[in-house]
Amino acid sequence: MKLYFSPGACSLSPHIVLRELGLPAEILKVDLGAKTFDGGKDFRAVNPKGYVPVLQLDDGTVLTEGPAIVQYLADQKPASGLAPANGSIERYRLQEWLNFISTELHKQFSPLFNPQFPEEVKELQRQRLRGRFDYLAQILAGQDFLMGAQFTVADAYLFTVLSWAAYVGLDLAPWPVLQAYIERVSQRPAVAATLAAEREAKKA
Question: What are the Cα distances from residue 5, in Å, to 49, 104, 194, 202?
Fold first, then answer.
């Protein structure tokens, strides 16, 4: 397998999942500005959408979109518990969380990274996100992870998105539950190893 990623982007989520599972994969850094990888190869030839993450299987099949990729990876090792069994209500709960993170958090952050958006619009986005943080804090006040006691692929995704807050003027101090959650996830060996690997990749 090959994972196409960009340091700090949403591709951090499947990168974490790969390490949590111990699955072998070639990790390829993408220059999202130039849409190139591996010394100048055209990334759009791999993913015409032009963004990460992308998972390329050994038979050449290409998967895009983080929520789909992390579920595929988790299903390679069902005993890991990173995703509940297909067809179970717990699996639909996982998909519910992945959809919430994707639409209500991830995409709400996007304008905050765009220098073309006026500050008034960005502040509206921050307000919207603060409301979502209130909801998450209520959920995580009584449990370690989104699905309860078990770390899942949804946590890899939520951790990734919450890590962006510091870069866009969103102080998480009003939500100590979320700060504790980030710290808890960051101390997982696979997560710490992934963060270190992406820091090194960013320097290269």
Answer: 14, 22, 12, 11
- CATH number for the domain spanning 110: value is 1.20.1050.10
* pTM score above 0.85: yes
d(CA 55, CA 70): 10
Assign residue 64 the CATH number of its domain: 3.40.30.10
How many Cβ atoms sit within 10 Å of the Cβ of residue 135? Answer: 11
Largest CA distance in the chain: 48
Structure tokens at 20: 């949590």
d(CA 54, CA 34): 16
Tens digits of residue pLDDT in 3-15: 999 999 999 999 9
Across all residues in the chain, what is the average pLDDT? Answer: 97
Q: Which range marks the domain in which residue 167 is found?
A: 89-188
Tell whether the model's pLDDT for residue 204 goes beyond 90: no
pLDDT score, position 171: 95
The amino acid at residue 103 is T
How large is the average pLDDT for residues 7-33?
A: 97
Please, which residues have CB within 8 angstroms of residue 202's CB and are 6 or more apart in sequence? 7, 8
- The single-letter DSSP state of residue 145 is B
Q: How many CB atoms lie within 10 A of CB 7?
A: 18
Q: Could you report the per-residue pLDDT of 163-179, keeping only the tens digit for each?
A: 999 999 899 999 999 99
Locate 167 and state its tokens: 């870069």
Whether omega before 53 lies within 30 degrees of 0, making that bond cis, reads: yes
